[in-house]
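User: I'm new to structure prediction. If I give you an amino acid sequence, what do you actually give back? Let's try with this one:
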Amino acid sequence: MKLFFRSLPRLIKSANIDMKRHLSMTVSAILSVAIALLLSMAMFMVTINVSKMTQNIEGQLELQVSLSPGLSDDKKESLEKEIQSVSGVGSVTFSSKNQELDKLISENGEMFARYKDANPLYDIYLVEVNPLNTLEDVSDTISTMDGVVEVNYGGGAITRIIDVFSSARLGGLLITVGLMFLGVFLIRNTITMTISTREDEISIMRTVGAYNFYIQMPFILEGISIGFYGALIPTVLVSSVYSWLYYESGGKLVSDIFSMVPPWPMLGYVVAGVFAVGIILGMSGSWLAVRKQTRKVR
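Assistant: Good question. You get back a string of structure tokens that encode the predicted 3D arrangement of the chain. For your 298 residues, that looks like this:
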């Protein structure tokens, strides 16, 4: 271990010399890794925001059960218990037609105030459903109950939106993982090419009895450097673009339901993660290349 730390400055210097000596390959590898990490980071940011939007939709999604006019209080209480007994139903909240009209006026202005004398709305129950994949079944069950006029929640369009967002979230994660493997492959190929140009040098070092770590470490440090610089470009680019988009759009797309995740501290965690991933990719790719190629050189 002492030998390793005493040799470390020399190994770092050797790695820097190798990177300058093969500058075109090094720059090519950095750009390739940067592109892979840029796409990965962009997909990850999309996935995070899609998850938040899905949670927003799920948090505001509830069944609106319209009641027949003239139902007695006893019938309403009985109907509430019947709704509560349905599998998948969470809370059940009553809202009178006057309360609903007041909400309509507060949200849309006094244009609806003229209906106060002849309120055309229904008394309703607001029903939370959990899990959401039972929403349609619960709606169908409640709609057949005596005293129910109709059940509204947005129908199949809402469930399709949730399904699309869930698929996008899963697809984004799979693409991100695939791009990580691509980054390892690119770094491995670069280090392999570097080793192939130094076969004679490695052979001489083996002949004079150099330790394996002394031969291999400069290549591993080179891979770590490639991963670090490859992570620098996408973190700066994506952080800048995302922050600008967030503040320009007011933190939401179209409506409050499609709100974005605030840049900070989220971006801090993501940037740290991307640098860690870049360094790990560089270390992994170079180690895989070094382990295989240096065995061939005797």
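You can read the tokens as a compact description of the fold. Here is one thing that stands out. The chain has a mean pLDDT of 79.
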